Amino acid sequence: MRSDNQTTYSVAAYVTAFEDAIALNQCLTALRSQSHPLQHIIIVDNSLRSLELSEENRADDRLLTWHHPENIGIAGGMALALQWATQRRYDFLWTFDQDSAPAPDCLERLLAAYAALATKTYAIGMMAPTAIDARTGQTVKPSLFVGYRFRGFQPADLTRPYECDAPITSGALVWLETVACVAPPDQGLFIDGIDLDYGLRLRRAGFHHVVVPDANMYHRFGEPFQVELYGRKKVFQLYSPLRYYYICRNHTYLELQHSNGWYWLVCCFRRIKFLLLTLLKLLAFDAGEKRQKVVACVMGTYDGFSGKLGKTW
């Protein structure tokens, strides 16, 4: 039974894991340490061989591990977990990448904010924490879709909960009543841009997404690289060739799909500009695998324009 009292909310957590037992165990430890208890923690392990859990994590009977060595990606795993939690009548599914670690009171703060804000006329699709880059300390901005592109958004007042179009998937607390209204994450996106697509589709279906400033989550994004340009320090994130492919492909595809009218043409020019700037950044600052990464960016952008999705790289 649903209730406005946060202590009665039932919450299951979901973690996508891939070839990094250390990160997975750290994420699980953070989830098991939440001040508001989780009823189940689902792990979709996309590794070729099952990742080994720590003794403390193995001993927790709330953990369920589903091994998918064929690698169904973030989108595929999230779709399975949403279906599982909905069938068991959970109120929320708390979704994570293995590279995240929420603060011990993160879930408690998210649920408290939900209880204070949600009404019959103000349906909340996702509650999201403040995502902080664990390596640089920078706050990662959630997204708004403006005309022809997704852009990072930060409100003037960071002391109060605020809305966005798409919080990052990791740390998002999904209200499971949305499952009956909006299709699950697009599995064709595989590992990138799932948050942008799913979040925006929920928003356009009438649900609101709220970021809670005092609910913190630490997350690792790529490999940070700091340079000084014109007297100002700038941090770039460097990725593997595989990740560059899916970033370029999926963001190109999604921005074109969500752009209307003349915005579609503006989006085309922007995606080409983004590709050229990314290539310049790789050639200037990336010390390894330059050729593979350049090819990945070019092929990803081309496949994004042509609408080629799926696990293709």
Task: Give structural notes.
β13 (223-229) and β14 form a beta hairpin. Helix content is 36%, strand content 25%. The chain is of the alpha/beta class and 313 residues long. It has helices at 21-32, 55-58, 73-87, 106-117, 194-204, 241-258, 263-285, 290-306; strands at 11-17, 40-45, 63-67, 92-97, 100-102, 124-133, 139-140, 143-146, 149-152, 162-164, 173-175, 208-219, 223-229, 232-238. α6 (241-258) packs antiparallel against α7 (263-285) and α6 packs parallel to α8 (290-306). The N and C termini lie far apart (44 Å). The radius of gyration is 19 Å and the shape is globular. It has eight helices and 14 strands. The protein folds into two domains: 6-219, Spore Coat Polysaccharide Biosynthesis Protein SpsA, Chain A; 223-306, no CATH class. The model is unreliable at 1-6 (pLDDT under 50). Strands 1, 2, 3, 4, 5, 6, 7, 10, 11 and 12 form a ten-stranded mixed beta sheet that branches.
- Low-pLDDT windows of residues: 1-6
Global Rg: 19 Å
Major sheet summary line: 10 strands, mixed
Shape: globular
Query: What integer is the average pLDDT?
Result: 94
Q: Can you tell me the CATH topology of the largest domain?
A: Spore Coat Polysaccharide Biosynthesis Protein SpsA, Chain A
Quickly give the structural class.
alpha/beta
> How many separate domains make up the residues?
2
Q: What would you call the quaternary organization?
A: single chain
Proper CATH architecture of the largest domain:
Alpha-Beta Complex
What is the CATH top level name of the largest domain?
Alpha Beta
Annotation field: number of helices: 8
Beta-strand fraction estimate: 25-35%
Please trace the helix and strand order, writing H or E for each element: EHEHEHEEHEEEEEEHEEEHHH
What's the end-to-end separation, in Å?
A: 44 Å
What is the total tally of β strands? 14
Q: Helix content range of the residues, please?
A: 25-40%
